[in-house]
Write a structure and sequence with these properties.
The chain has 554 residues and is α/β, with parallel strands linked by helices. It has 17 helices and 20 strands. The strands form 4 sheets. The chain has a 7-stranded mixed beta sheet, covered by helices on one side. A hairpin with a 2-residue loop joins strand 10 and strand 11. Helix 6 packs across helix 12.
Amino acid sequence: MRIALAQINNTVGDLDANAAKILEYARRGAEAGADVVAFPELALTGYPPRDLVEKHSFLDRTRAALTGIVQQSAEIDVAMIVGYVARSPESAPIKAQNAAAVIDSGRILLDQRKMLLPTYDVFDEARYFQPADRQQVVEVRGTRVGLAICEDFWNDKQFWERGRYSRDPIEELVRQKPDLFISINGSPWNLGKRKLRLDIFESIVDRFQLPVAYVHMVGGNDQLIFDGSSFALTADGKLAAQAKSFAEDLICFDSETGTGDNHDNHLEGDEAVFEALVLGTRDYIRKCGFRSVLIGLSGGIDSALVAAIAVAAVGKENVTGIGMPGPYSSEHSLTDAQCLAHRLGIRFEVVPIRLGYEAMIETLEPLFEGYNQDTTEENLQSRLRGLTLMALSNKFGSLVLTTGNKSEIAVGYCTLYGDMCGGLGVISDLPKTMVYRVARVANRRYERIGLPGPIPENTFTKPPSAELRPDQKDTDSLPEYDVLDAILAGYIERYESVPEIARKENLPEALVRDIVRKVDRNEYKRQQAAPGLRITPKAFGVGRRFPIAHRFTE
């Protein structure tokens, strides 16, 4: 069988556009001589649809869109596997199911439903979907296909030390003697994810000695980024076909000859992070209906990286940087921001906040009488900058991109309604040390084509500072970022205890306890933050859910 894997970038709920793209790629697959074109999990509806599945109108229109695809399939000489949201049987307690329709020549050969519904990390599928009670092999153009929807392929008892589920859909399909497997997926990307999924699928191929074709969606949907990277493995475990990462693609795999297309452009580490952030930023802006963005440029590394990502995502003509010097801003904060804007080719405007700050101090002076200056006055500056950016956003219809990194957000080194103002946290899942590394990646992209890196060297080398009081440095309140990030990785990503982190990192327990206390104390801030793009295995927001009001301490 010749299988085309169509990794498409769809938009949640845009049923007409998603259906049109499915038909377009089906025709391309037919032109490539494929017998079947496989599309990702929930390709028709977009993933994840969340509470949209509670709407009867959503389910009705999804079914109508699928019916349209089935009807038009009669004119396309190729079978299709299309993921969508189906209605559950009338007796089911949950009204929707995660489904895949196998379509050929104007009819549905099989309507497969997903059996294993993940409820860990960013997933909440058991809330929305009724699980299937069985799986069925389907014959497609003379080949017996075992079809699995994402998690149904991720419970191999020989791979995991402890499986999450009592049933193994792949074992059940193998008993029906398929000739090969096709797995359709919506598996959000994070660092290390691509290797993990390849390891899992190689393990299953080694166990059952059957070819596997894995198709995966690509694109950003809210906080989640999907990398594509579809692939096919022969029965002896050879990697026979690979699709691009972070881009739409169509590849073919011949299960008889064990050959296929190789569009490998896979990046690793910080290079992959940059590409993921560009994709996630572009799709968030586009899918939310914006065309242009605003960024407060401070001359620091965080806003510089966000600006470089934004230019790569939507083009320099759609990015505006705003410098907002205050009473304690250094000269280099403005000159570094100007240099960055010039090298990126973006519009740059300067809106000083000194007069606004002095006016607010004078206005509040009667109420503040007898009190010393503290973070209140510092935060006034940040909030005036947020006010400025949001006013420009309202006037010109541009989306504000926030510039806070994961380290700052973790410990509350950020100001509500100030630097946290905006619609998307582009680097909110990047620890500060990673910000510096990914910023080097941004510069190398320009240097490869003979242009100077847009981020000035001074931005890399000067001590980080919020510049909200004279001679302020981040290290006045925080340890060095390499130390802070090591503590945060242990506590946030691995849930390690204070003594465990202190022992592993050879740090004083008092320091670790202080940082942990800051993390816990600032949950209320994080839950008011803009949605942020997920890069690490444990991101704030959708992947990490803690109560705000609680009394448990470390």
